[in-house]
Design brief:
- This protein has 883 residues and is of the alpha/beta class.
- 52% of the residues lie in helices and 8% in strands.
- Helix 14 (334-344) packs parallel to helix 20 (461-468) and helix 29 crosses helix 32 (815-826).
- It starts with 22 loop residues before the first helix and ends in a 17-residue tail after the last helix.
- Disulfide bonds join 212-217, 235-868, 243-828, 299-548, 757-880.
- Residues 200-883 are lumenal.
Length: 883
């Protein structure tokens, strides 16, 4: 019996059944398919999932025959199988599917007749067909007695898909398979001859054989071409030139406020992780990996989560002492509630406390205290009340809705939540803006707990820190680094003058924010309404499994990384990446030698620091050692039955891990990103750059792509992170990772003059009429500019050593131009206006468009290779250069 899944309204049927065989019918039927709901023959993927998934592997190359406008291909992708090609002989529906799923580049859509597929032999591991043969056989009079024409049609499809039956009785001494193979051999011989003729023509036209005609080169050339906008001059707007086509083909997916290369790769990585965790044959010798699966499965237990509703959080609030919003509360327990909320459950009301390397003595860890306590992304949302009235109203509505879901009454809940919001506004008033915190020498203050107590006496710091870092014994002389003494002093005064009931409501509100993502769908729906106002997202269609992968990554990221690395990471990639870093470092150091503004003593120290930068590629070694991996998560209890309790256990466990670090030196094995993360970073206290396995893939890096693209992709990322060691903050740390003045005054003054040019340049850029903050983004802008220059110089050095490489076919770009296009296309991006505003006020990076335009307009090499004249939009005539 057919499984009846959700589907679109039944469309107009053909006059006769045989009409199903005609492409004209399908072209007419699929007019407007890009905007209509999928139509599922026999049912959707969920109806067949139990049958299919045991037969599929994550890296299978899957072909879907007669895809129509079904969501099957996309659902297979979401199921953890990223390599899916779909064919249909209606060009109308193929165009619609390309548009609908343009945000998923691994899904391919081709116009083909299933009776005459155009793929090379061996192109696929799995072929799926759901209703296509039925459509082809609608002309049959009797379903039990198929005509010879019908048999021939089925034969054609099976043959094209790679299946044949033996019929030796009909064909005498030779089986049909043998005859087919003989025919295929003749066909391949003809194709080979045709290829040789074509190549001969190509070689005749291109005597130097300078064009790369490998499959990889042809594929990447196609992707580059479809991303370009040839209607725009590269000297007018290089971002639009490089990304205009990509932007047209990539409308924002539902539920997303932004979409770019990083999001796309993370979705692919998540699909792989899903398959690994849901594999019915999952069997690991590592307890940490087993915990990872249990945690993930507990997150998927939606029925259990819905059944519990808000009760787990209500019970937790009662255990802590109650909440004035929802019922009785203990009025004399400020310190006890603070210890529970900020200590046991790791929320961050008023301030945040953590253990990390001491910036001025990087071989030892120390307690650190910094400003915190705001729920909205930035203080600007609270203080610019006229511009952000919609957001503040939506936030108050959200606060009220959660309070009522937890047992509050409508009138009293809104009033009490309004008081909490007013307290957050007062916190925003004393919070120091990020662009005023860039000089770490100025904001670093080391003191004892006794001195901290004198600075901020509204709470007992020794009691709080001793509870947080239990079982360690702390005394009044224990050193603490405070970032922002003025802030803490004012917070203390704010606590003293605030009503106890408001303080209690604010503290418990911080706990509620921390834990509601582990509760039922009502809390999720409330958050979605706030996010729609804050980021402009439409209602999220994010599958539950994706949410659970992200949660698992947060909780057990390195155990998850162990599974990811073993399934996907090629050790050769690590060796190649290390070689590229060496080349880029050499190019950076060579450029150091040509800087006219830097004195010799500072230059030598800078070279020594560059030499000392430690690079970490792929993953930390301990994750592949089961015992070492298990030790990392020893003490973290994970059950498959209670997602909420797993999250509480995680907060408590992380507090214990933090306490354990205080008396130990910092470890290089302690990464700040998990291996599956699509990103990279520089850490000044270790003077190290880290490139997780997740980013070492296309479009950043592919071993069989032209070097121009690899240097323009991952090469610029490497140069970017290396340059962070010498941006306005990184340059304050020496080669050992210690915050100390090591620059000569004259060079420091010259550096500041050069960075002032960058700051002023980027401050002129606007998004939707709102200016960028050139001070806030200064470090990232310096790194973008320096990274591009170092990577391009490294590419030129590679060419000098290895000679010119072949060019890509059809793109019409030299390899030097291709380097810059490759760099720009990494940053192709779309986002909502609300998300763009949020980025401007919170993100230390410039918007993607200006990461391209700002950087390239300062590049002499770019301007030369594209011939941009002075006075053109890409060449103002004034270049800002630091490194």
């Amino acid at each position: 019996m057919a499984c009846l899944g959700p589907s679109a309204q039944v469309p107009e049927l053909p006059e006769k059944n045989c009409g199903y065989r005609e492409v004209q019918y399908w072209d007419q039927r699929y007019q407007g398919a890009a905007d209509s709901a999928p139509y599922e023959w026999f049912g959707d993927f969920s109806c067949f999932r139990d049958l299919l998934e045991p037969e599929l592997r994550p890296l299978d190359r899957i072909l879907v025959l007669g895809c129509g406008n079904s969501a099957l291909s996309y659902e297979i992708f979401l199921g953890g199988f990223p390599d899916v090609t779909s064919v249909d002989y209606s060009s109308v529906v193929v165009a619609a599917m390309r548009a609908r799923y343009a945000h998923v580049p691994t899904l391919r859509w081709e116009t083909m007749d299933v009776r005459a597929l155009g793929f090379p032999s061996g192109s696929f591991d799995v072929v799926l067909e759901k209703g296509t043969l039925d459509a082809l056989l609608t002309g049959e009079q009797d379903p039990w007695t198929v005509s010879s024409e019908g048999v021939h049609t089925v034969d054609q499809v099976l043959n094209e898909a790679g299946f044949r039956k033996r019929t030796s009785r009909l064909l005498g001494l030779h089986t049909q398979l043998e005859l087919v193979l003989a025919g295929v051999s003749l066909l391949l011989a003809a194709l080979l001859l045709g290829c040789l003729v074509a190549l001969g023509v190509q070689y005749h036209r291109d005597p130097s054989h300078s064009t790369c005609l490998t499959e990889a080169c042809i594929r990447v050339a196609g992707k580059i071409l479809e991303s370009l906008d040839r209607g725009v001059s590269p000297c007018e707007d290089f971002y639009q030139f490089s990304c205009g086509g990509w932007i047209r083909r990539n409308p924002l997916p539902d539920g997303r406020s932004r979409w770019n290369t990083f999001n796309s790769l993370w979705d692919q990585n998540q699909a792989i992780l899903k398959h690994l965790l849901e594999n019915t044959t999952f069997n690991s010798s590592s307890e940490a990996e087993r915990k990872t699966q249990r945690f993930y499965l507990s997150c998927l237990q939606v029925e259990r989560i819905e059944e519990l509703g808000a009760q787990p959080l209500r019970d937790l609030i009662d255990k802590i002492g109650g909440w004035n919003v929802t019922g009785p509360w203990d009025q004399d327990n400020f310190m006890e509630v603070l210890k529970a909320v900020a200590g046991t459950y790791r929320a961050t009301p008023f301030f945040t406390v953590y253990v990390s390397a001491d910036s001025k003595s990087s071989n030892s860890n120390i307690i650190q205290v910094d400003q915190s306590g705001l729920f909205l992304p930035s203080r600007d949302y609270y203080l610019n009340r006229t511009a952000n009235e919609k957001v503040l109203t939506a936030y108050l509505d959200y606060m009220e809705e959660l309070g009522m879901l937890l047992g509050g009454q409508p009138t009293s809940t809104r009033e009490q939540m309004r008081q909490v919001l007013e307290l957050e506004i007062q916190l925003a008033n004393i919070t120091v803006p990020q662009d005023q915190r860039r000089d770490e020498e100025k904001i670093y203050h080391k003191m004892s707990i006794a001195e901290l107590q004198a600075l901020a006496p509204s709470m007992d710091w020794l009691e709080f820190l001793s509870f947080l870092l239990s079982p360690l014994e702390l005394g009044d002389s224990e050193p603490v680094v405070v970032y922002g003494t003025d802030y803490l002093q004012q917070v203390s005064e704010l606590i003293n003058r605030t009503e106890p009931s408001v303080l209690n409501n604010y503290l418990i509100w911080n706990l509620v924010q921390k834990t509601t993502s582990s509760l039922d769908h009502r809390f999720e729906s409330a958050q979605e309404k706030l996010l729609e106002t804050l980021y402009g997202t439409k209602k999220s269609c994010t599958p539950r499994w994706q949410t659970c992968i992200s949660n698992t990554d947060d909780a057990l990221g390195f155990a998850l990384g162990s599974l990811f690395v073993k399934a996907t990471f090629d050790r050769q990639s690590k060796e190649i990446a290390e070689g590229m870093i060496s080349e880029i470092r050499a190019a950076f150091e060579e450029a150091l030698g040509h800087l006219v503004w830097m004195d010799e003593k500072t230059r030598q120290a800078a070279k020594e620091k560059a030499d000392a930068i430690y690079d970490m590629i792929g993953f930390p070694d301990f994750i592949l050692e089961p015992k070492e991996l298990d030790d990392v998560y020893d003490g973290y209890e994970v059950s498959e039955d209670s997602f909420f309790q797993n999250m509480l256990n995680l907060y408590n466990f992380s507090a214990k891990v933090m306490a354990d670090q205080l008396r130990k030196p910092p470890s290089r094995d302690q990464w700040s990103m998990t291996p599956q993360t699509v990103n990279a970073y520089y850490l000044p206290t270790k003077n190290e750059i880290v490139f997780p396995a997740g980013i070492l893939q296309a479009p950043f890096y592919t071993c069989n792509h032209p070097k121009a693209l690899n240097f323009g992709g991952i090469g610029v990322v490497m140069g970017h992170e290396l340059t962070h060691a010498f941006d306005d903050q990184g340059r304050e740390y020496d080669k050992e990772g210690n915050l100390r003045p090591w620059w000569q005054n004259e060079s420091l003054a010259a550096f500041r003059n050069h960075t002032a040019c960058i700051e002023e340049q980027y401050s002129q850029y606007q998004v939707n009429g709102e200016k960028l903050n050139g001070r806030q983004t200064l470090g990232e802008n310096i790194a973008d500019n320096g990274g591009l220059k170092a990577a391009y110089n490294a590419y030129k050095a590679w060419l000098r050593k290895h000679g010119e490489e072949q060019q890509l076919p059809a793109v019409g770009l030299t390899n030097h131009q291709l380097f810059f296009v490759g760099f720009a296309q990494v940053w192709c991006s779309v986002r909502t206006p609300e998300s763009s505003h949020e980025g401007l006020v919170t993100d230390p990076h410039s918007p993607a468009r200006f990461r391209v335009l700002g950087t390239l307009s300062n590049s002499r090499d770019f301007l030369r290779h594209f011939g941009c004249p002075v006075g053109s939009p890409m060449n103002s005539g004034q270049l800002c250069e630091v490194w």
